[in-house]
Every structure is written in structure tokens, then in C-alpha cells.
Amino acid sequence: MEKKKRVYRFGGKTAEGDGKMRELLGGKGANLAEMSLLGMPVPAGFTITTECCTEYYRLGGGYTPELRKDVAEALKATEKIMGKKFGDENDPLLVSCRSGARSSMPGMMDTILNIGLCSKTLPGLIKKTGNPRFVYDAYRRLIMMYSDVVMEKAEGIEPEDGQGIRQQLDRMMQELKDRKGYKSDTEITADELKDLAEQFKVRIKEVLGVEFPDDAQAQLWGSIGGVFKSWNGKRAIRYRQIEHIPDDWGTAVNVQSMVFGNMGETSATGVAFSRNPANGDNKFYGEWLINAQGEDVVAGIRTPNPLNEATKSEKNKNLASLETAMPEVYKELDGIRTRLEEHFQDMQDIEFTIQEGKLWMLQCRIGKRTGLAALQMAVDMVDEGLIDEKTAVMRVAPPSSTRCSTRFLTPPPKKRPRFSPRVSPPPLAAPSERLYSPPRTLSNAPRPDASASSSARRLLRKISTVCTLRSVS
Ligand SMILES: Nc1ncnc2c1ncn2[C@@H]1O[C@H](COP(=O)(O)OP(=O)(O)OP(=O)(O)O)[C@@H](O)[C@H]1O
Ligand SMILES: [Mg+2]
Q1: How many angstroms separate the alpha carbon of residue 419 from the centre of ligand 1?
Q2: Which atom of ligand 1 has the smallest separation from the CA of 420?
Q3: Can you tell me the distance from the alpha carbon of 22 to that of 7, in angstroms, rounded to the nearest whole number?
Q4: CATH number belonging to the domain at 55-257, selected among 1.10.150.170, 3.30.540.10, 2.40.50.150, 1.20.80.30
Q5: How many Cα atoms occupy the beta-carbon half-sphere of 244 within 13 Å?
Q6: Which atom of ligand 1 is nearest to the CA of 257?
């Protein structure tokens, strides 16, 4: 009998899977593989298939010996590409465990970063990086995420409002900042972070009755299970109901080598759209933060910087753009933006991290957009020769299953997913129009002016007809 393949590797400019394998690898895993095949700088790792998620539930929450073996082998291959070993005391590799469904469920499931930090690996990483502050910052983040996702949510614990372990730890950190008069997390010193991590562990034991695992392998397998279980988290279930996503699809798990945007002033993290998702302008649009890890961009603790000069807003006009602060990296990212659009023939929503001046790509997917932007992009992309007219018309009137619930993707601030990858939307042309809402009317559609090409005019007429037909049907 043919052996079932449970794990697909990616990174080092090669991959076992590809972009077409969404069903098995989930959208994130498939695109990480595709970007690797395109030769883009993707931190190496592997994807555990969606079938393993189903298997995990069938086994009542367990792993087959085959999966354990396949993961161990894939981890070895990852270590080889990255030149570091997971759990090593001298130069430890750290990984993230990332969810990834077949159909995009933005921010609805969980991710754990910095897995592999424990008392055995902490001193080695400090010695290797010469940066204790960075190491303890990564450690406190791991403790916060792991206790929240794996030790609380995945265990089905439902704390009272405001009493979740993550909220308790957040408050402890805030109290420290208040005591010291710090405005930003980056002001907390290495020693303070070290103490904080110890206090976190004590609180976790008190509240959850279990020790935070001080072992890299235990953290890895705990995280894999935590991500599988996040498929059945409340947010995910509700999102599936609204979007009509079958419950038995399961999520893949992407185990990926960590890259660090929080290593100092030459490191950063950001999210971007290859075009403006609000009005469709063909301008690279996004946000980034220096010396930060993924979650910080959307956590609202610091105002993110604009990506470039052309898209500065009232809120961030005095902050440095990536284009001016790191021109070389920006150029490389802009090149990747163009290649991704050409390859996927659509607007892309991307996540990236810069570690000590080196760019790493962490995600790409087709970006959500307003109805207005969908029209503008469709017209422009036909003009640019990126897509044909038929595709353009289809894009403007997508089937309902690909539409995105506005209600869900712009949740009230308190319930906003911690890891929502969304860039805060730029000001919209029509105030009533919200990001991610599907096109409804043509009242605010771009009108072809005298300078518009004949193909654009023709396309707009076609789109008008399709939308009118839909609105009367
Ligand atoms: N290996 C890694 N190195 C550095 N940053 C990472 C790594 N893995 C994930 N991240 C960052 O952590 C954040 C959360 O990751 P992830 O993309 O898995 O979840 P999400 O963005 O919250 O949700 P979604 O499933 O919609 O993408 C993102 O900013 C991502 O770029
Ligand atoms: Mg993401």
C-alpha cells in the first residue's frame, strides 16, 4: 500500500508541495511552498497536512507514530537548511507553529511563535546573539502565546471576562511599564523581561495548575496540538458557519523557522497589500514597525510606520517610511510584490520580516478589497495585460463563497484577533464603504475619463452590465 504523505517540506528555494495544493496544505502552506519554488526568501519549515488534523480528531487528540517520525525527519531537513538545531544548547533553532485552512480564515485560528526557548537553550541563544534583551523578549512572548493557546484555549478552559491567562499576563506587563514610567514595550530592559518571564510562569502555575513546559520538544508537540484544536475554537467555528466552510476540512499546521524582526534597529516586521485595498490604486500599501514581532503591527501598542512616501496618511505622515529607512530592503520587497502579482495574477496581501537587514517572506495570499477597489483593479489589470477581460468581469462579481463578511473581519476592538494580519484600512473614497464588503452597486464605481484606454472603457461597460443584471436578478 502506498504510504500516506503527512508532511511537506519547504524553504531553501525548493518545496515538496506547491501553490495548487491548498486542500492538503492549507492556503498558507501552499503559498509558502509556492514562494519557495519561486526562489523567494522563505524561512524553511514544513507543513503537516489537513488530513493529519482530521486524523488527530479521529484518534481523540493523538498523533500516529508515522506522524512523529515524519515530523522528526522534516525537522532535521529544516535544521540543515537553517544551519541550527532545534533544542540545541549552543545555537538553537526556534520555530513557529501556524494554522492554515484550505479556505482563508484570516486571524481566526492560532499561531505560536518562538517555540524551543527553555532553560537549556536560553543561555546559548544569548551567547550566540549577544542580545539578552531580544532573547528574553522572545521568551516572554512564547510564554504568553503558549499559555493562552495551548494551555488554556485548547484545553477548553473558559475563564471569566478579563480573567484569561493572556489578559492576566498582559496586565502584569502593563503594571511593570506603569511602575517604570515606560511608554513602549521596547523600553523594558533585559533584566526586567527576565524577571517578568519568571513571574509569568508562577502565575500560569497558579491559574492553570500546570507548569509551562521547559522542553523544546514538549513545546513543539503541544503547539501542534494547540493549532489543530484551534480549528474548533469558538471564533473559527462561528466564522465557518458564516462563510459556509465545512467543519471536517481541518487545518494544516505550518512549522516554520523563526526569523526575528525584534533584533534591534535594523530589524522590523510588516504587512502589506500589493495595491491599495480600499480604492484599488496601483500603489504598494502597508505598515511596518521597527524592532518588533508580527503581532505588534496590529496590536495597536505602537503606531505603525507607512511603507512608502506615496501612501503616507495624516496619522503616520511624520513617521519614517520603509522606503527611506531601509531603501535596499524596500526595493527587494517591491520587486517581490511585482513578481507575486505577475505569478498569481491578482492583488496580494503579504507578511514580511526583516532580520538584521535581511528580508524574509512569511505569507502571501489573494487580498480582500472593497467593491470600488475590485473594479479599479480589474480595469487596471486588464490595461496592464495581467488578466483578460473575462477574468476581470468574474473578479468584480465573485461568487458569494469568496465574499468576506464585513461583520467578522472588522470585529469590535476588544474582540479583535490578536494576530489579525490586517493593515489598518486607508481612508476610503466613499465614507459608507467599508473594507472587505462585496461590491453592491455601481454608484461609486470609477468612471472612464477621456484618458482611459478603450479597453478600460469597454470593460467598465461590461462590468456595469453584469452588475445591473445581478442587481435585478
Ligand atoms: N517563523 C516566523 N518568523 C517570524 N514571524 C512569524 C513566523 N511565523 C509567523 N510569524 C508572524 O506571526 C504573526 C502570526 O502568524 P500567522 O500568519 O500564522 O497568523 P495570523 O496572521 O494571525 O493569521 P492568518 O492565519 O490569517 O495568517 C504574523 O505576523 C506572522 O508574520
Ligand atoms: Mg498571517
Answers
A1: 7
A2: 22
A3: 14
A4: 1.20.80.30
A5: 6
A6: 1
d(Cα 349, Cα 363) in Å, to the nearest integer? Answer: 8
The closest alpha carbon to 44, from 16, 20, 9, 93, belongs to 9
**For the domain bounded by 268-366, which CATH number is listed?**
3.30.470.20
Q: Cite the residue boundaries of each domain of the chain with CATH code 1.20.80.30.
A: 55-257
Kindly report, residue by residue over 146-162, the tens digit of the pLDDT: 999 999 999 999 999 99
Amino acid occupying residue 414:
K
pLDDT in tens, 171-200: 999 999 999 999 988 899 999 999 999 999
For the stretch 192-224, pLDDT in tens is: 999 999 999 999 999 999 999 999 999 999 999
Structure confidence by residue, pLDDT tens digits, 278-335: 999 999 999 999 999 887 777 777 789 999 999 999 999 999 999 999 999 999 999 9
Ligand 2 centre and the CA of 273: distance in Å?
13
Rounded to the nearest angstrom, the distance between the alpha carbon of 106 and the centre of ligand 2 is: 7
**Contact between residue 142 and residue 114 where contact means Cβ atoms under 8 Å apart:** yes
CA of 363 to the centre of ligand 2 (A): 6
Ligand 1 atom nearest to 101, measured from its CA: 25
What's the whole-model pTM score? 0.87
Residue 364 Cβ contacting ligand 1 at under 6 Å: no
Would you say the CB of residue 47 lies under 6 angstroms from ligand 1?
no
| Identity of the amino acid at 66 | E
Cβ of 29 below 6 Å from ligand 1? no
